[in-house]
Structure formats: structure tokens, C-alpha cells
Amino acid sequence: MEKLGILVIRGSGGTGFDRQKKFINKLNKRLGNKGIQTNQIVYEYVDWYEPLQSQQELLLERMYANPELKLKSKSLRKLLLTNIADLINYGGKPNLPGQAYEKTHMLVYNSILNLQSQLEANAPLIILASSMGTEIMNNYIWDRQHSGRNDPFSRTSFERFETLVGLFTFGNNIPIFSSSSTIDDLTPIQFPMPKAIPKWRDMAVWENYFDKNDPLGYPIKFINEDYSLANVRDIQIGVGNILSFWNLLSHFGYWTSSKLQKRICNFIVEVFAEIEKGN
Fold first, then answer.
1. CA atoms of 177 and 159, how far apart (whole Å)
2. What does the DSSP assignment read for 88-140?
3. What are the residues whose beta carbons fall under 8 Å from the beta carbon of 38, sequence distance 6 or more?
4. Are 138 and 174 in contact (CB under 8 A)?
5. For residues 217 and 251, is the Cβ–Cβ distance under 8 A?
6. pLDDT tens digits for 79-129?
7. CA 64, 68, 69, 75 torsion: positive or negative?
8. Model-level pTM?
9. What average pLDDT does the structure give for the chain?
10. Fewer CB within 10 Å, N- or C-terminus of the chain?
11. Domain count across the chain
């Protein structure tokens, strides 16, 4: 059984984890250079797209099967439907779940179970979430904190996120969804979890990274007074290359950021140091 679990959840845009896996490969190289045995880390990639993508593909298929519709900009239509439409179709409102919301969260739960099955008891958990993945994880954790004793997704301390030691969010979409509610009534997730295992609670960090040029990525402490008091740090970062750092395409640059790799690497080293204290 391994010692550290890392849950990776990306944003919209279809299936596949090419960017994320390249990021993890570079992260592992950094960790190896610092003496960390990366075979003691389990990575789980959350593939949450099917409930949304299957419906989107069906719409595209039916639309283009009609010979009377002579639609142009097919590539742009597909881009919008598989990216922007995700924000609408997911229906991300805790306690007001739609079909896609429930199915998406079941896929998250399955990933958590798979991760848990490969780890030692009470192993620490780190979450890397980007773009719409930040909203999904935010809602998923919020629901766990408010679903009561009979929550079927909260049978163990790991499933209840009581070993969650690091939450790294970037290109955060939470403010996009929050504007559909009464903003001052919104409450952030409690972090660390109220019943977090003490040694993980004491070193737990939630860091939210955003690029000022990214119109789809936001800080979150400004949302309301409760968020301003939340245990999260909004951190401005520059991402992207010469063609993207100054525009919308910067939103896709977080997974190639060496600064993020370095920060997460250093935190993992700290977590392993704490793990070794208990051995």
C-alpha cells in the first residue's frame, strides 16, 4: 500500500489527460531529484466528462444529420458546446442537483474509492483541480460537509476528506457559478475539514492560483465576507507562453507552469517528511 494519494481533476474540453500527465511526469522528476520515492505516490485522474459529453455529442450528431441545416463554424460550435456548455449543463448548485450533477459526483466518488484502495489507512490526500474541476470539487466537498451521517459517499475518514492536506486550485471557475445565487448567502467549504486528522490539519494548505490575464480564472476571497475569512490563499501567477500569456489562452497554461510544479513539489516533500515522522 502506498503513502500519498493525489487526485487530479481538470476542466472542460473532452476526454484525455495529456497536459495533466506531462505535468505529473515533470513533477515526479523534481520529486526524484529531492529524494522522494515516487512509487509511493498514487495518482488518480477524475474522468467526469461522460454525463455531459454524451449529450453534447448527441446534439452535434443530430444537428449535422439534418441536410436542411447548412451551419457553418462547425469547429467553433463544437468548442463552445464542449467547453462553455459544460458550465451550464453541469447544473452546479449544491442541494439542487440535476442528473448531470449527480452522475458527475458519482464519477468523482469512484475515483476517490479507487485511490483509497491503493493507500495505507489515513494516508494524506492532495487535490489538484483546474478550471471547471475546481467547481466540481468545491461542490463535492461542500455536499460531504452538509449531507449528514447517512451520506453514502462518506463512509471512511478518507472519503470525508479528513486526510486532505493540500488543495491546489487554479483557473478557478467558482465565481462564474456563484453569480447564479444570492452572493452574500454563499458559504465556502470548511478547510481543513472540522474533524481532520490533527497532523494533516496542522499543515493543511488551500492555495488558489489565478492569472490576471485569464478571464476564466478567478481569485475567490472577494466573493463575500465568509469567503474573505476562509482558510484559502489567492495567489496571482503568470502562466502561458509568448502567444498566450496575455490573452484568453492563458487559461490553458496552468498545467505547463514550472512555478506550480515547483510549489507542489516542495509541499509534497513536506508531507513526506511528516509521513516519515510516524514511521
1. 25
2. HHT---TTS--HHHHHHHHHHHHHHHHHHTTB-TT--EEEEEETHHHHHHHHH
3. 28, 31, 32
4. yes
5. yes
6. 666 666 666 667 645 555 557 788 889 999 999 999 999 999 999 999 999
7. positive
8. 0.89
9. 88
10. C
11. 1
Q: What is each CA distance from 231 to 129, 211, 221, 225, 226, in whole angstroms?
A: 17, 20, 9, 12, 10
Partners of 8 in beta bridges: 45, 128
Give the cell for residue 114: 479507487
Residue whose C-alpha cell is 486526510: 163
Lookup result for grid cell 440535476: 98
Q: In what order do the strands lie in the sheet with 233-236?
A: 41-45, 4-9, 125-130, 164-170, 205-210, 233-236
Q: Which residues neighbour 240 within 8 Å (Cβ) at sequence distance 6 or greater? A: 211, 213, 246, 249, 250, 252, 253, 256
Query: The domain that contains 113 carries what CATH number?
Result: 3.40.50
Domain with 101 in it = 4-277
The predicted-structure confidence for 5-64, as pLDDT tens digits, reads as follows: 999 999 876 667 999 999 999 999 999 999 999 999 999 999 887 767 767 777 777 877
Q: How far apart are CA 179 and CA 186, in angstroms?
A: 10
Cβ neighbours, 10 Å, residue 105? 21
Q: Give the residues across from 45 on adjacent strands.
A: 8
Which distant-in-sequence residues (6+ apart) come within 8 Å of 199 by Cβ? 274, 278
Grid coordinates in use for 200?
494533516
